[in-house]
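Q: How would the C-alpha cells look for this protein?
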Amino acid sequence: MRWLHLSDIHFASNLDGATTIQIRDKLVEYLSKKEIKADCLFITGDFRYAKTQKDTQEAADAVAEYIKKIAKTVGVDNVKKIFLVPGNHDLDRNRKLRKSLIIGIIEQYDINQGCFDNEDLFEAVEAFTFFFKICKSLYGEAEAETIHKRMSTEIHLFSCQDDYNVLLLNTSVCCVKDNEEGTLIIGTKYVIEALKHIQEINPGKPIFAIAHHGLRMLNHAERKRLLSILRDYGVNLLLCGHEHEIWHEPLTQDLYQINMGCIKQDSNVQIGFSSGILDVQKAHFLIQAHLWDSQFSRWGVYPQFGLDNEVLKIWINTPFAKAELFSSLPEMFSDVEEYIIGTRIQNQTIYGYGFDLQVVLPWIEKLMQSNPLHNCYKILVQPRNIDLNKQTSVKNAFNLSTIENSLSRLDEIKDELLQTSNQLEVREALLPYAFHGLFVNKQLYFTWSMINENNYLSNQMPIYRITCGINPLQDNFANSFSSWFSYYWEHSNILFSTETPVA
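A: Here is the predicted structure in C-alpha cell form.
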C-alpha cells in the first residue's frame, strides 16, 4: 500500500502569490515526472488561510479541484481513498458564542472522563463550515452530511480498508484563537471508541492516525493520555502538520509521528510533502520526504529526512510490541506463578533457558511446591564452571545476592518434589550466554544480558513478556526460542531429574 501525505495547503486561488502558484503547479509536474504513485491520499488540515480566504462553497470547490488533481496524478481515482481532517483554519472561529462555548468546555473537561457534554460537542463541531464544504465538493452532498452527523457525536472518525485502517482525529475541535499550542483538548474517550471499532471490524491491520496538530500541541495531561491510548490500541503512525515544518520522531517503541510542512510560500516555513509505502509482508513502512528548493525553484527529495538511502524505515509491531516489562527476576517469577495458578496451567511443559542454576532454582522450587497442577519443568542452565563473580554477575544484575549454588539442594528436596504433581529435569549446556528465557504455555518471558570483551556479564536489559498469537513477529520469536531450546536440550548433560529423564 502506497500513500501521499500533504498538509497545510492554505489554498486561496485568487490571492495566492506567484511563488505559491508555481509551487503547486510544479508539485503536480514533479509527481508525474517522478512517477510517484499512491493508493490513498492523506491531507492533514488547513485547506484555506482563514484571514484572507472566505468561507464559501466556491472557495471550497477550488481547493477540492486541486486535491483531485493531485489525487489523479498519483493514481488515486476513488475519492473515498482521500482522507481529510480539519485544521484550525477550516472552521469559523468567530461563530457566535463559540469563544464562551469553548472556554466552558475546557473549564469543565475532566481528563479522566475524556468527553464533552453532547450539546456542547454538537455546537463545537458546527463551526467547521469550510471543512464540510470541502467534503461536499469531494465526496458529494450525501457523504458530506454523513461525515457532519458522525463528527457531531463521535468527533474522531475512522475508515477500515483491506490492508490498513485510518483513524481521523479532529484535534481542532476546541480551537478558538491564535497561539493555542500546549492547551488543546480533543476528547480522548471518543478516540478509544473509534479505535475499538477498528479492532472489531478490521483487527490486526496497521493503523494510521492522521491529525492536524501533533501531540506537543495538546494540553500536557491530554497529551500523555492520548499517547498511551494510541500506543495501547495499536496505532503505528501519526501523520500531522500545523507547524509548517518537516520532522519525525518516535513517540513509543512502536509509534512514530511524522510532521509535514505546508504547500504555500511564507516566511520561516518548510514547503514539502511525503510519500510512503506500507509493506505488510516485510512488516515495515518506508517514508520519503520531498522539499521545495526556493533557490532553484524546484521540488526534490529531502535526503536528511531519512536514515537509509534517504528513506525512513519504521518497523511495524516489533517482537516487543505490547510487551509487559519487569525490572527484576522476583517480579517475573511472581507473574509466572500467578499465570500458572491463576489460569490453571496443567499437563504442560514449562521451559527455562539460560539462567544460572543458582538464580533460577529457588523459584522453580517455589513454583513446583505451590502449584497443585501437573506440569513438567525442563530447565537448561549454564555450566557450573562459569565464573559469575567477576565483573557484574547475573545475581547482582537482578539484585539477587544470597542464592545457594548447589545441586545438593535438589537432592535434599527431591522427596518433597516427588510428593507434588510436577516433574523437574535440569540439564546444563554451554548456551549463548546473552539470552535468558522462560516459556509457559503461550507466554514467553525473556531478557538479554550484554557481554563485555572478557565474556562476562556487564549489563542487563528489562525482562519482557510477550504472548503468542498477538502478531506474526512475536510468534516467530517464540518459535525461535523453541528451536534454540530443542537444539541445546539434545546437546546437554543431565544434572538432576525427579524421575527418568524427560524425553
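Residues 386-406, 450-459 have pLDDT under 50 and may be disordered.

The chain is about 35% helix and 25% strand.

Upvote if useful.
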